[in-house]
Every structure is written in structure tokens, then in C-alpha cells.
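Why run this: before we spend reagent on co-expression, it is cheaper to look at a predicted model of the complex and decide which construct boundaries make sense. The entries below are exactly what would go into the expression plan.
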Amino acid sequence: MASPGRPDGEPRDRALVASLRAGDEQAFADLVDGWSGSMLRLARHHVATEAAAEEVVQDTWLAVLTGLDRFRGQASFRTWVYRILVNQAKTRGVRDRRTVPFASLAGGDEDGPTVDPSRFQGPEGPHPGGWRQFPQEWPEDVVLTQEVHEVVHRALDTLPPRQRVVVALRDLEGFEADEVSDLLEISAGNQRVLLHRGRSVVRAHLESYYTAAPVGSAGR
Amino acid sequence: MTCEEFVELVTAYLEGTLTPAQRAAFEEHLEVCPGCDTYLDQIRATIDVLGAVPPESLHGTARQRLLDAFSDWSAGSA
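The model came back. C-alpha cells follow.
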């Protein structure tokens, strides 16, 4: 039975599930390669070690296969898979006596300005709160070189864990805002703040790369 | 609205969660401020770059183990 609300996703999901049932190994490999990276990031928040996170991701894929008949298409297939992941990770976290509720990972990751305040004029300037110098424009045709990917990976590594997960799910994976709030059990407002802060940091790293000025160096 | 305030509303603007009044003030500022226009463009470019980053996967052994498990599952359920 069709559920409303996902007119585009639904046929695609049905086709995907059908190819898995038909034993299409390439389809499975593409899924594993496409999603496992962000699944690892997400799992890492509930378990103590990188190795445990990898096990959780592997167990999740096995659970997806054995539970495939229970996929009803009420959520997107991807959301269904990630929910299994979160449940597996929580179970594993409890077993290892290492439950880290996502909310408790907060700590200084939601306060303060996202752009270095020294980039703006103080009360003594002609335009208090205005740019001292406009951000320098980036090259017109941004080429996505290996080097740029490395800049982004380094930027993601510097993010506080909650920001990293939200940016990964939203911007790397393309989840919708409500799906991310739901998976992480955080409010819409909290999700948006974490996304905002995370993106700002990545922008600053790209800025420093494109304009060859050290990140956050202005006036510090 | 100052530039310093503008940069903190960029995500809410792109997410469509500003109130109509905030949105009007935001767009009004955008019209007159080339610096903030550039900033907003750069946030959009950042999102594009993030979306183009190739995904990481599991390391080789774990990946192969899953593909083997898939073959077994597929053979068993066929």
C-alpha cells in the first residue's frame, strides 16, 4: 500500500528494495559505499570506540537484509536504515555501559558568534557591526579538486561532534531537516543551530584555502 | 540589520524559518550590502562543496564481509 508524502522517493525505494531481493550485489555495494561513512559518524556517538562503531555499522547492514521484508515504505528506505543503525548503536552502547545521549554531548558548541567578531567594526566605527573588509570573493569556477575535498574533511574533523553529525547528514547525505531532528532526537531549532555553526566553520576553512589567509587569524 | 547580525541568520534564511518581518529585513540588507551578498554566496558554495565530497566507506575487509553476507542472504532467500 502506498503511503502519501514521498511521491519521488517511493518508487525509487521500491525499485531499490526489489533489486536487493533479486540479489543485485552491485546495488547493495553502492548502498554500503554511499552510506557507511555517515553511519560510522552517527554510530560513533553511542559507542566507546571506532572499532565498536564499525561493528555497529556491519550489524546494521545485516539487520537490514534480514529485516528487509519488514520495510513498509512509511519512511524513506534511507531513514528506515538509519533508524536501525541508531537502535543498534544504542543497544551496543548500553551493553558496553557507554550510553552517551546525543543531547549530553553538548558543550560549548552552541554559543558565540560564527564569524570572527574582529571582522566587524566596533562601536567606534562608521558602521558598527558592519564588515571591516568585505569577504574576498572566491574563484568563479570552484573546481572540486582532491585538495578541496581534503580541506573539507579537515574542517569536518575540527567540528564538535554534534555539529559534525548534523552537517554530515544534512549536507553530505542530503537528509531533510525533520529527518535529522528525528534521528538525533533533537528539536528543529537545535538542529538548525548545529547546522549553522558547522557550515560556518567549513566556510571559514574554504575561505582560508581560497584566499590563503589562516582561519580565524584576523585580528587575533 | 547589521552585517554581524546578518551572518547569524543565513541558515535560518536558507531553511525558510525566518518570520516574514525578519525575512524582509534580511533581504533588504542583502540588496544594499555586497559583503553580505558574497557571504551568502559562499555559504551556498560551501553547501555545494559538502554535497560533492565523495563518501567514505568501510575498510576493505569489513566491506567484503558484508558483500559475502549479501550473497549468502541472497542465496538463502531466493
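The CA atoms of residues 8 and 59 of chain B lie 38 Å apart. The radius of gyration of chain B is 23 Å. Bring this page to Monday's planning discussion.
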